[in-house]
Amino acid sequence: MMSVFPTYNRFPLTIQSGEGTVVTDDNNKQYLDFVSGIAVCNLGHRPPAVEQAIQEQLGKVWHVSNLYQIPIQEDAAELLTGPTDLDYVFFCNSGAESNEAAIKLARKHTKKDKIITFKQSFHGRTFATMSATGQEKVHEGFGELLPTFEYLPYNDTEAVAQVNDQKVAAIMVEVIQGEGGVVKGTEQFLQAIQEKCKELGALLIIDEVQTGIGRTGQPFAYQLHNLDPDIVTSAKGLGSGFPVGAMLGKAELAETFNAGSHGSTFGGNPLASAAVKATLQTIFSDQFLQDVQEKGVYFHQQLQKKLLTLSGVKEVRGQGLIIGIEIDEDAIGFIHKLRENGLLAVLAGPRVIRLLPPLNVTREEIDEAISILQKVLEYEKVNLK
Ligand SMILES: *Cc1c(COP(=O)(O)O)cnc(C)c1O
């Protein structure tokens, strides 16, 4: 890695191939991938339907620019808004860009500047989305941030109720904080945000970059609650590994995002749109999502039963197939041990082991992952103390 900026702490693992939930490294060792490229490969590695759709599009045209009609982009947008009350989609290439679009749209539409976000949130690494992110370690060293963001404590209903500032353009929130430790927003808290937005004439922006595209057993996690967002952002799982992002919004916002107001050269190009279309045709079906819910319940029950009994395991939380296991010490050592034992997992904050298996993971694979977790957590606890 001598020619790449050292912006990542990389694990000593080179994945050479992947199929479904299983990846193979350069020594031919196999692993169960319960990271899925950080909630990206929601249909596992190289899902045949998506591979075929991209291959078909590869043989037609790859990129034309948004100067021209792109019917497959329209198809993708229709599928994406289908299970929601949102009407339009702006396509971009990442989660940060989708949030960037949301911030610009909210400010232009409301003619107000201030955006409320939450502590321990994560919204991206561009200047605006970094400023939106309520974590000091993300801001460090970059000088003065954009001044119009205010961070409230997450799940603090009272703090939301007390906001009384007519300059608020939007409140932006994750229904489950992913990077912040797999922390679920309470119903009360989320309803307070919804009400406050109505009261102040502010837009409700839900960041579904990690929780969307079926991860919780709903198309989007906000659908677990009685919420009516104006804007929803998506990326990670949207293209099964093809880089693509999207911002969904209500019809009345279309006048604000009119011709020339925002754009992206690559956004929604035919290849990306083919990946999105094939991904959503599979995931946004009732039967598929029902399966995710049932496997999520099973996974949680098994983890509660087999891990919570171990000393040092404090909590198992999450929804559907985004799961956090909080332990009473730094978890990085466990992430290494799990990998050595054939299970890929990732941190969410220093003490939380996060599991993000593909949504089409099998029960057998879940059982195997649990037995590896059990073995590693048990053994390490006994032998390291
Ligand atoms: C990953 C993530 C982002 C940033 O997405 P990128 O594609 O890395 O720009 C934004 N919000 C949430 C909730 C995320 O999990």
Main beta sheet strand tally, sense and closure? 7 strands, mixed
Q: Say which CATH homologous superfamily of the largest domain is assigned.
A: Type I PLP-dependent aspartate aminotransferase-like (Major domain)
Tally the beta strands.
17
Number of domains: 2
**Order of strands, widest sheet:** 4-12-11-10-7-5-6
Radius of gyration: 21 Å
Q: State the end-to-end distance.
A: 36 Å
Query: Are any ligands bound, and if so which?
Result: pyridoxal-5'-phosphate
Class derived from helix and strand content: alpha/beta
Give the percentage of residues in beta strands. Answer: 15-25%
Shape: globular
CATH class of the largest domain: Alpha Beta
In the CATH hierarchy, what is the architecture of the largest domain at level 2? Answer: 3-Layer(aba) Sandwich
Low-confidence stretches: none
State the CATH topology of the largest domain.
Aspartate Aminotransferase, domain 2
User: What's the helix-strand series?
Assistant: EEEHHHEHEHHEHEEEHEEEHHEEHEEEH
Number of helical segments with 4 or more residues: 12
Task: Write a compact overview of the structure shown.
By secondary structure, the protein is of the alpha/beta class. 36% of the residues lie in helices and 19% in strands.
Chain-wise SSE layout:
Elements: E1 15-19, E2 22-25, E3 30-33, H1 36-39, H2 48-58, H3 71-81, E4 88-92, H4 95-110, E5 114-118, H5 127-132, H6 136-139, E6 149-152, H7 157-161, E7 168-173, E8 176-177, E9 183-184, H8 187-200, E10 203-207, E11 231-234, E12 245-249, H9 270-283, H10 286-307, E13 313-319, E14 322-327, H11 332-340, E15 343-344, E16 346-347, E17 352-355, H12 363-384
Parallel strand pairs: 3-15, 5-6, 5-7, 7-10, 10-11
Antiparallel strand pairs: 1-2, 2-3, 4-12, 8-9, 11-12, 13-14, 14-17, 16-17
Helix pairs in contact: 2-9, 3-9, 10-12
Pyridoxal-5'-phosphate binds next to α4.
Enzyme class: transferase
GO molecular function: N2-acetyl-L-ornithine:2-oxoglutarate 5-aminotransferase activity
InterPro entries: AcOrn/SuccOrn_fam, Aminotrans_3, Aminotrans_3_PPA_site, Class-III_PLP-dep_AT, PyrdxlP-dep_Trfase, PyrdxlP-dep_Trfase_major, PyrdxlP-dep_Trfase_small
